[in-house]
Design goal:
By secondary structure, this protein is an alpha/beta fold. 17% of the residues lie in helices and 9% in strands. Helix 2 packs across helix 3. The N and C termini lie far apart (67 Å). 28% of the residues are buried.
């Protein structure tokens, strides 16, 4: 290979280009997965699994595979963990003990991907709260009791028509048609 073309070596930044640390969307997630956390406040006492110590210039946070039952205190805690918490775009809360979609999630208007699978959320009406997230494109809810309710996928997509992926599956044209029909049915019941 030619000079500078070796594998595993990142190219030197060109003049005017931002480095990884200056581009939060490219930074690794702040990872608190599998840390036996039962409250958000514990994040300030636990070392992340990987990456530099907070505050990190990332837009992604992993809180999966813990014992979280509630998300109280999330905004002030993220103020200490992330450089720009209002720009949080990717949040993994899968495999916790959540029984509801906490309204605090609706304060993160830049969220594009939210993973809530493997929790204990039973009411489909909880999904209504996410309708205020204009950037949300990817959502996971499978493995929650709500998934067993008839019309689950159509209901979620009728409330969140901007999703491109639900439960790690792309949204199809047929999904959109079913969701439109569900919206019509939902409107008639009111």
């Amino acid at each position: 290979m030619g000079e500078g073309g070796g594998r595993g070596r990142a190219p030197a930044p060109r003049q005017g280009m931002l480095s990884w640390g200056e581009r939060p969307e490219l930074a690794s997630p702040l990872d608190f997965s599998f840390c036996c956390i039962s409250s958000i406040e514990e994040l300030l006492r636990v070392q992340p699994r990987a990456g530099p110590l907070p505050p990190q210039p990332t837009h992604a946070l992993r809180l999966n595979n813990n014992s979280l039952e509630a998300l109280g205190g999330l905004p002030p805690t993220l103020e200490q963990l992330l450089v720009t918490p209002a720009q949080l775009r990717w949040l993994d809360l899968s495999f916790n003990c959540l029984t509801a979609i906490d309204p605090v999630l609706t304060t993160f208007r830049a969220l594009r991907s939210l993973q809530l699978h493997g929790n204990s959320i039973s009411s489909l009406a909880e999904v209504d709260k996410l309708g205020v997230l204009p950037q949300l494109r990817r959502l996971t809810l499978h493995g929650n009791p709500m998934e067993e309710q008839r019309g689950y996928r159509s209901y979620v997509l009728s409330l969140l028509p901007h999703l491109t992926s639900l439960d790690f599956s792309g949204v199809t044209k047929q999904d959109r048609e079913d969701a439109a029909n569900a919206r019509l049915q939902h409107g008639k019941k009111k």
